[in-house]
Structures
1.
Amino acid sequence: MTSTSEKPAVNGVNVEALLGARIALGDTPEAGKFTWRATNEWLHGTHSRSSVAGYFGLGEEHEHKATFGFESDHPLVFAAEDNAATPVEIVLVGLASCLTAGVAAVAQNRDIQLRSVKATVEGDMDIQGILGVDADIRNGFSDIRVTYDIDADASPNDIEALVAQSQKRSAVFDILTNPTNVTVQVS
Amino acid sequence: MRATTVVVGAGHAGLAVSHYLAACSIDHVLIERGEVANSWRTERWDSLTLLTPNWQARVPGLAYDGDDPDGFMDVSEVVSFIERYARLVGPSLETHTNVESVRQNGAGYQVVTDRGVWHAPTVVLATGACNIPKVPAFAADLPGSIASCTPMDYSNPSALPNGGVLVVGASASGVQIAEEVHASGRPVTLAVGEHVRMPRTYRGKDILWWMDRTGLHDERYDEVDDIKRARRVPAPQLVGKPERTTLDLNALTEQGVRLVGRFAGIADGKAQFSGSLRNKCALADLKLGRLLDTIDEWIDDEGLDGEVEPACRFPPTRVEDSPPLTLDFAEHGIRTAIWATGFEADHSWLDLPVLDHKGRLRHDGGVVSESPGLYRIGLNFLRRRKSSFIHGAADDARDLVGHLAAAIGAPGPGKGGSA
């Protein structure tokens, strides 16, 4: 990859640690098995609060530096109170956050200095699906579009390649583009 | 039975190793489960041609000398070429002998075959890179009415049921099979994951000619950024036809083949495809652009700009606005699935602690360091980008025989000897 600056790029991503982890996992694949967790509690109406405190990985339990909270609700047009973002919007947030993290990591690895990275995400949905009006219409998104506006020390082709590689390595992109078995049960 | 070296496999790579072993006066035997060039005789579809041009068919001591250097050999011509090479090298050869295991035996090895046991201090595995078709586990969930095969047991379109065909995988085998099956009147849907797009010719020359001339094919395994990834790169979308046509996804779309995303699973009798098709195509287009940039820069550096056709770029891969994410086999009249999802080398018969958790051989450029005296040739990017090509065997065989000779205190093969 080309970089127009002489100085090494500083994007704040510890690529050496990530590459080291990849080599280490080649020898101990078990350590790569992570379990991510969230809890969610109903508040009122369609309003609920989720929290994320810890996860399992590298063979042991970990705690985040703090317990992170997320609220979610539905909008006024759904006759709800709109106390917080809609769950499907949180999914879009997850996708954009994951892709942007990937752009930064790949840029660091390719020694590309980023100045600004902005993404706009749109997801199309026909609510006839969730309302059960038309069985041929799915509940979820019919199409998701992400548009990146990136200012970096790199050619347009190299920026395109950053964004393409970020999708290739993204967990949330994979989650949204491939099927996943989901089991929901009552304890 | 004893030999200094047992070579397992009598294809072009095993014979190239034999050529250099003989040059070093190292006594050896080639053990072959069938006849010389066995996989070419038994595991290739009818219309297959090499994707490398004839001029590139060169092994140590023999180079293509026919009258069509820019043409492409069909399977029978490849078999004849390797047979001719076998006569030239003239090794001690045990055909129709199946190696059942290789075991440690003191400082050397025991090579157990169905026709006796060989004892040798050194063993070279030349058993090919494509022993087992890789088919995803969910293939078992295909509806019972759907016929399925892999490129290894596919022969020609007329052997398939009439009706639609889902070809899974868009590397060399997948695109070649998709084209001929679609042309037979069986409409093809092609599931596309990661792939390598290449034009057949660029600036008036074969793309592989450029890869040779620019040194890309000679790039070494210890020079690339990420050798694990480089070894996983699938075979390029190339086909060897006299007209030297390009067989990329746009060419297939023009012929009426429908592109869908990577085949991700089967649920309720329906195929599910990944929504990543656009990005897979973007990645391949960008990678092709970088390859052409490299070639253009080389031409520029060499001052050859005026002597070859001008630089050009190819249109991006066309992807329909909303490629289907599911496909009902019955509704779409799909009668056959062809799993062109790659191959892997089979090392399960090695009774030695040299395999990783996925059953892959751990080696350093073909030298199995954990098991001194054991070598492997003929894997993807074993020592060089060209390692899996026929013409890639020469340099690798010379290097590995050099290492082997040094290990047993014999004089090496030197630099010469290649055609």
2.
Amino acid sequence: MKTLKDVAIGSSAKVVRLHGEGAVKRRIMDMGITKGVEVYVRKVAPLGDPVELTVRGYELSLRKEDCATIEVE
Amino acid sequence: MSIKIALAGNPNSGKTTMFNNLTGNRQYVGNWPGVTVEKKEGQLKGADDVIIQDLPGIYSLSPYTLEEVVTRNYLINEHPDVILNIVDGSNIERNLYLTTQLMELGLPVVIALNMIDVVRKNGDSINLKKLGQALGCEVIETSALRGEGSREAALRAAQLAKANQKQEHPHVFSGTVEHALAHIEEAISGKVEKDHHRWYTIKLFERDEKVKEQLKLDAATLNRIEQTIASCEEELDDDAESIITNERYTYISKLVQSCVTKSRKKGDLSTSDKIDRVVTNRILGLPIFAVVMFIVYYISVTTVGDIVTGFTNDTLFGEWIQGGLGGWLEGINTAPWLTGLIVDGIVGGVGAVLGFVPQMLILFFLLALLEDCGYMARIAFVMDRLFRRFGLSGKSFIPMLIGTGCGVPGIMASRTIENERDRRMTIITTTFIPCGAKMPIVALIAGAVFGGAWWVAPSAYFIGMAAIVISGLILKKTKRFAGDAAPFVMELPAYHWPSASNVLRSTWERGWSFIKRAGTIILLSSIVIWFLSNFGMTDGTFGMVEDMNTSILASIGNVIAPVFAPLGFGTWQSSVATFMGLVAKEGVVSAFGVLFGVAGEAMELVEDGAFGELTTIASHFTALGGFSFLIFNLLCAPCFAAIGAIRREMNNAGWTWFAIAYQCGFAYAISLIVYQLGMLFTAGQLGVGTVCALLVLAALLYLLFRKPPKGVSSNQSAVRATM
């Protein structure tokens, strides 16, 4: 399974499915990461985590462990 | 009859600015009942019968965060007349997501399409008519920052509320979902208020636990609903919550495509993007962060902050008010005890607290700047990795940095942390960092007991940091900090120039809330300690005493002293000094001076480095006992001013007492371990105390390394469970 965590910085990926559950998953979806949306991985924080994404025209930061629950094409 | 407008919108949508625009100075700030979420209410300028209720900034109406639950409970139970939904036009897709949820509540909705100036500047355009028609509500362009359109939007909302017309909102879901929703709607027909029918239907479809609890449906109905959901889930191959969220966004994407024309091509960088490329750059990110923090620290603690604090404490309160008042009271022949109570007890105590206010205002001003321009979110982004291991937030860095100057503004700075769990953890641990007032204690012990050894001061900071890390690790595994996982899914808002009125208002609100606290709890505590240290029995009569040695506090010290004996400082003077430290930490040094009969002011001797004069103090301590005393006083409950700040920020007596008890308990445990094991290794002394210390150490290690008990879901375990 390829996840958002595997997507290289500076490239985009299309979301296939969200794994995970409960509050964290809902929060990620509420912020606009849903099935079929294109996510651009912009950069990683100076200490290596979290990452900064562009989704639906705005900037979102997400931890790598949460990125690992987002399946991409 | 007055009209109530509820102001709802995403964080960073300009909601606060609009609220300030609409209400001006006629605001009332409080808390939502039972929670620490701030509640703001105000009257519309020039229209007394229109009340504006500001709601927390939220992204959704899910049942998972406090802010969202507060908002939905208010909208459903309190029935405002109309919702004014602030939508950030420059970030329209995600902002409309909340709009689709607000429309389902059955309340009239007016949309304020905010930041329209940014939209125009980007060369984009939004078709208002089309957007309004599709959503079934009026859309008004606003730019709250420039004060444009806010008032029109509010007046329009008030008009709509008066007209009491039904709005027709679109059905955003697919046929399959609408079919299932119709089934649920039928099942709960007559069991909920008609206006909120659609809201309850959708929430039940999402299996929203809070709504289920509230409605108390019978088993048969619940069963029927569950079957409907399950078959829909099977058909669409996803869980109900995801289906709803997906379809909302699908609907919005289409709507935005038809209403918004973007001029900027994909890949073009906006100004904000360009700033961010540098500011959170992999290589430059940390140095820039360090520079910003240094500037904040330098201004608020070392230079300007230090000067104004020195002025208010020493000159304003010390010389002018205390001196002047003392002279005046003596002049009119006031009884000495009353003069003492007023000048030393009340004015001295409260003055010590109010003295921090100017410094705090400077700090709050800087924090408000950082928050308003968008850098605060980046601080969390940059520091998250380091702090989250200890159950803290990246934003905990600021309170701790400020805490090295003074714990009071440090604790107050924790308000920038949105997540309640992280905020509480930060409040409890911030004062472990040695503040400026603890430095004289460090200097006294280092100079008098250790002959000026260089390592004592650095070790104080090291102990403070270690205490934060250890406490973070222990506390995050406890039941008290259990609850919903705190996901780090954070928006990084676009950078923009801070608004002067927002920054000043936020500075003042935070400062004022502390001043109010100083007038109550801190005042009372100061009077009690003053009384205990100035009254006692002399020659069989009760009255004011000249010498603290015969005060009530000294008697209390005698009773309590044995408690500290296992820590190596079981003299009654040490206990009394520790108590005096509650008023202000440097009070420990002055108290020692008085109690041990040092010639001259102990505080001044310490400042001058004349440790030879302090041998009377040193003779009461062994090296290990002195160090243990230092550790205890560094880690135990902070001064009353800081306790007041804790009380203010926790907004809950239970949590305040927990924080104080934890700090004292932790301080005792660490001092016990250090002293007893130190005695074992240096003097080979083995006894009951050693056994106790080993037991405490074992317990501490167990708490530190145990697996989180069931029900304590950390973010990581929640994720792992599903992988």
